[in-house]
Amino acid sequence: MIVATYDPELGWSAPEVKPYGPITLDPQCSCFQYGGNVFEGMKAYLGPDGKARLFRPDMNMRRMEKSCARLALPPIDGDVVLELIKRLVNVERRWIPKESGYSLYIRPTVIATRPGLGVTASDHAMLYILASPTGPYFAKPVSLLAVSENVRAWPGGTGGHKVAGNYSPGFLPQRAAAEKGYDQILWLFGEDRRVTEAGAMNFFVVVKRDDEDGVDLITAPLDGTILPGVTRASCLALASDPEFHKEISVRLHPQEMVYTMSDLAKWSSEGKLLEALVIGTAVIVGPCNRIGYEGKDIVIPGDGMGPVGTAIRKKILDIQEGRTEWKGWGVVCA
Fold first, then answer.
1. How far apart are CA 312 and CA 238, in angstroms?
2. What is the reported pTM?
3. Of 7, 35, 86, 227, which has the most beta carbons under 10 Å away?
């Protein structure tokens, strides 16, 4: 692990590479009392050339900088943190699995460490970076329970940032969904039951177009309640790229738009809802097979990943694992 601390008079300390182990903090620290915690999720992959690669890590760093600013934490320099991550990956590269779909998961974290109970922004912080081998996130298609009585995020809140406080409020609804036989929550928002995210992942649907000119790849817009995921942005970029269209022989029309459960039900009844996908660093691209809503299931056709999800996942994994060079997205940990 790598650890550095911030003092308001001295600034950031020299980072230390040390064995993984406990950290010692004052029990009054802001991270415990007021939730001043932000983090990122990243992966390092081993390519066929033996080099370790990160996937679009600059996007993670820009997001982490914004998350720290949103919680009034001491600022970080994302470019410096990225260099630390590369150093850690090279130190721990023996732990990167060689099998396709496996990787070294990396968790850079910044926590507020001001020692006091005053309700104020923390002027002390700790940065630490963890790494651990990981494999495929879901072994089978995911079932979702659409929920509107609880919300993941709201306008003006922190849903568009990767802060710890966004996650634990979802654990109770998640437990209730599991008791009903569903894997994850499909978060809805507003009286019109707008579709937002799935669990801690972005959510996409593939819908047949009326003009038969390919298909629409639809996801909710970045309105402040949606996490601007790196994989999300990559899916949209691929879907708008004519070169990728030629590779897969399908014309995709990426759409960032507000859509509702009524829209999903309508598309399903008309036979236009072709695929539903959960998207994120951990899962990359995964299939959803059914969505529970008001006592009924919207069933997604097929037995697993459809052709659009399969093509996007394969392309992203090829880039991540160094089999394909694409617009500088794969960054070697030199």
1. 8
2. 0.96
3. 227
